[in-house]
Records
---
Amino acid sequence: MIKKLSTVLLASILAACVSDGDENPPTNGGALSSNPSSALSSSSTASSSAPTSHKTGAQLYKAHNCAACHGDDAANPTQPIVFANWNQNSLAKRINDTMPHTIGLPTDCVGECADKVAEYVLSLAPVVACNEPAQALPQRLRLLTNREYANTINDLLGRTDGEELIKAIPVDTRIAGFDNNAKGSSATAGRVDAYWSVAQKIADTQSNINNLLGCGQQQQNPSQDDIRRCGDIFVPAFGKKAFRRPLNNEELTAYKAIFNAGNTTAEGFAYTLRAFLSSPSFLYRSEIGKANAGQYQLDNYELASLLSYTLWGSMPDETLLNAAKSGALSSANTLRQQAERLLKDPRAQAQFAHFGRQWLNVGNVSAEAKDTTIFSNYSVQIANHMETELDLFLQELFLGGNYKTADIYTANFTYLNRDLAQFYGINNTNTNDFQKVTVDNKRQGVLTKGAVLTINASSKENHPIKRGLLIRRNLLCQEFGLPPANVGEIEPLDPSKPLRERSSAHSNNPACAACHQHIDPLGFAFENYNGVGQYRTTEGNNLAIDATGSLIGIKSMADLDEHNFDDLQGLTDILANQGQAQVESCLATQYHRYYQGVAKPDICEVQNTVSRWQTQSGTLMDLWLAPLSDPNFMMRR
């Protein structure tokens, strides 16, 4: 019977519905997703049987075979056109100068043809009008990420080894930078087997059984009535915590039967624990709701889980579950009060450091291969210290209360211990405990943190492309598609040549220049920081560093606004001041991706969040709370 019931519960994982339909598109239009690296292409042999002046842009687009690469709607996933990155003049120039996007082939859509095609292509861009209410997310079930699973195991059972346990579970798929995308992971057969194995290991190693049972000390030879009475207490109490909601009658009957099959209360506990931890109701977060005026309103328990997994990355605590039981979470005021309480908990600090690192694409720094003949004083220990520095910095900024977006780039403090301070060449820290210290502008803001610089580098030196893309993609939310096949490489390390010179053959390649003119100048702003984040004034054979450049197009790469800088400090000042509106909008977009678990948040919903946020204090803390005021936070479609 135990095997049968457990198998039924386990098998139901595979039947659980995790598809949430189309990800939430922009209101009244499609997703603004396309690719400036390969705008329009045409066949070198394409020709027209009539003069260009007699053809429309749509006819020319077809005649020159542009759809072969970019699709009929210019949104082919392999080479889409990022409408937001182009205006008519810049796109027409791109077509006129470089299409088809193949080296050695002549352009054959120039002048009036290029103008007409550009006008037609931009007419395909979805119209985004935010005078209509933003669309709610679809009903869905969200599989716990490995990190959420580990945190939940620790909080549910009073353990500390969750991170070790999840090593047996397949890694999460990251989409748009984040590991909690609702479509990113599913309960495959291999994943189900891993969940079952981990559940067995947990049951075999659980030590605080009496506290969890809640029915007194285990007896040596309990009667069946004793076992039944213990199960009657344990199953509903533990089940409510494990499932983040009360068990229904059918579940109560099933789990009590599993418990009663044990010859002792400890055995019944082990059987039932395995079943609970392998159930879809434990492994999935529910966002189904109940019908309400043509939509579905999340119930209070679903709201409790949404809140706790967003702000803690773990299960609701007893206070939050009690608020759900009373129905109080349906009140916007109570919802915000609970959110503010959760943000004061240490679990929120870990959660927002995790969000920040995924936003900045900073993974395991110590796993980055570095050439120790070049970086002789770099070590795994230094890499770990860098991660601690970044985590503490992000926690202070995100949850410190009064910091604003500009502080992300210009804050004049960091967290150092003696070893990391010496590695950076700073001499104001004399202990191996991390301390908040004031730093000069060479170490201001997040972009000077060793973890960010080390990840965005190669094994031997800097990597201006990675560092430039960090600015464009992660901080300004400007998209690039896949590079062309003939992308080439930067010249190998040569102490007699500066990196700028060695990069020129690559960046001047016609197949690469269209994108790299927007990437490389930003990457070169980091040249004062070597491949492991140490500050320098020369490179190679005592060659002077040139970190000058310009940021062209803060809002869109099609714009002509130009902002010159002398070094990274100058670039960060531009982001904090002239770029304030765009970096705030991008940060809000990244947060929506994270908490909603979607790759493309609704544009209008993001705009609404930014508007609410800025009418309040504009602090980073208020950004995390702003979505709670959106009616769609608790609604699904």
---
Amino acid sequence: MSHLYPDRYLRLDGDAVTLILAITDGVPHVLYWGERLSAETDGAMLARLALREEAPASPAQQIPVALTPMPGHGHVGRPGVAIHRDGRDWAVMARVVAVEADARAIRLTSRDPACGIAIEHALAIDGDVLIATTALVNEGDAAIDLAHLSAPVLPIPAQATRILGFEGRWSNEFQLHSRERGVGSWLRENRRGRTSHDAFPALILADPGAGEADGLAYGLHLGWSGNHRSVVETTADARGQVMMEALLFPGEIRLAPGDRYATPPLFASVTRQGLSVLSRAFHRYLRARPEHQRLRERPRPVHYNCWEAIYFDHRLDTLLALADRAAAVGAERFVLDDGWFMGRRSDRAGLGDWRVDPAVYPDGLAPLIDQVAARGMEFGLWVEPEMVNPDSDLYRAHPDWVLATPPAPAVTYRNQLVLDFGRAEVRDHLFGCIDALLREYRIGYLKWDMNSDLPQPGGGDGRPAADAHVRGVYDVLDRLRAAWPHVEIESCASGGGRADYGILARTDRIWTSDSNDAIDRLAIQRGFSHFFPAELMGAHVGPDPCHITGRTLSLALRIQTAMFGHMGMELDLRTLDDAAFAELQAGIALHKRHRALIHHGDLVRLDAGRGVNAFGIVAADRAEALFSVTRITEATGYYPDPLRLAGLDPTRRYRVQLVWPQAIPARSALTAALIEGIEVTGEALMLHGLQPPRAHPQTGFVLHLTAA
């Protein structure tokens, strides 16, 4: 026999998933991670089914892929931990010495007395999402250098041969790309110091035929706002596993005796019902978190952000006029963006000096805030506390407070440097600045921006400080949330450069992308939706033409695209004529009418064919739905393909009505019927499909469905 039977089995069940751990010769490993098993199927049964014969040129007894694969265990793949003490104590071989387990959580402690370390694994299931962390404790009498430590390692079934990874760039985030999994390693690394635009720390492993409505799919996300590494490894014995971890620079983590380092949490789920069901598992987890309660207590307010209307040209009369127009069009929150503080007439000066500039606002922000409040809106303010301009009072007083790698010359982004949030004095100073603003003014919302990577993340002691910076940012945000629990905070990082579950434990909204181009936004928002629900997705109606892409798109399409997130506007409302203003007003009213459905319903992305972006939001009781359909490119034939909806109750009848654009002409019997409303069964809509109207590229429509 070439396989050791496990000594013990541990099981966690979610609503629709099951995790079974086995402990073999003291080493914990995942025996099963997949859809929920009945009580009749137990670990011993699965262990017998996993029995393998001895293979040529292989160990006589197969070595399980541990939660933390260890060098001393004989694992020849990538280790889950890499440590040393002056070149020794590297061949870790820890064995379980303590187990705490109940129906929803497991905690394991393993020790290696020879290396003087303990490894702790914590695993829990919330809904259908597994949350798992690994911690390393130095139990020796000398310091340990930690090179890397993975969150608990999960196996990949043989049929999950497709890797869906997320790529992109500034203004084009969350682009989904598919690759085949083969023998060897798929590696994605990020050293930008924030989650990044180009390497979102998540992936999906799926079978070749998996689509939105069916197929095996595993989703994994590392909840961390800094450097990270994801590895999908397939060994020659056909076993696959996923490792996700914070990426550490050499010497960045040194553990003194008694010190402990914990990985960021890994969030994972699995289904055989396709990618949309996988996304809904993550959405339901986020919505159920205690941190999300504040977002359930009131409707998500429609934003007006003044950035693309005025940039740095702050004039009180202009802002008061914009506030009047914003209130009239339906905005519920007015956000004053960059340019309000000392010396900030461009991006070359002022960052770090978080005091209202009396040259622009001689009476402070009170006159603007008072008018915003008088118009029934909440006031929000843009800040970028992690950054400093060399041309600022703060930098002149504390040039040593920035991250740097001397003697290398400083690398700037947007004429700014990064403050070292790993230093307590930096954190205390910036917390004090923001706290003072919140004390002086009625501010209900902070847009926390971060317009730079961490290109030279060296601390004052010369050691790498990227990890400490992220933990320092978390600390300041936690302190602000504790001191000002009613203030909502947005995570912005040149758009979607810091979007992850780590930052979301401390913030209420993600600015998805700096691009408000509706066509680009459709792909960005679709990628974002794989792990985040609509109410966390900042989505704005931008100007025409788009300031980033230069593309001209109809106001109707820009409204339709923004409607399905946390809706806002970012254009100069003074330039709209009466017809455009009325159209925007109607679009915001439509969003508000269906806001509860959009922000609480179940997402269903549709496999609608080439050149079409289509998705829906369906109520939990399936009594109501909204579907958005956009024709991106010209149809290949005279008529578009029938649109098969999803997520409906096949046994119910639905009234289907076209509700957007507002002024679509009844140019045919088809459009006339949709404007009037037709009544059909759910099964007809899902199995036969609806014939969409013929449409030009870059146009769309919204359908509202109500159960009859």
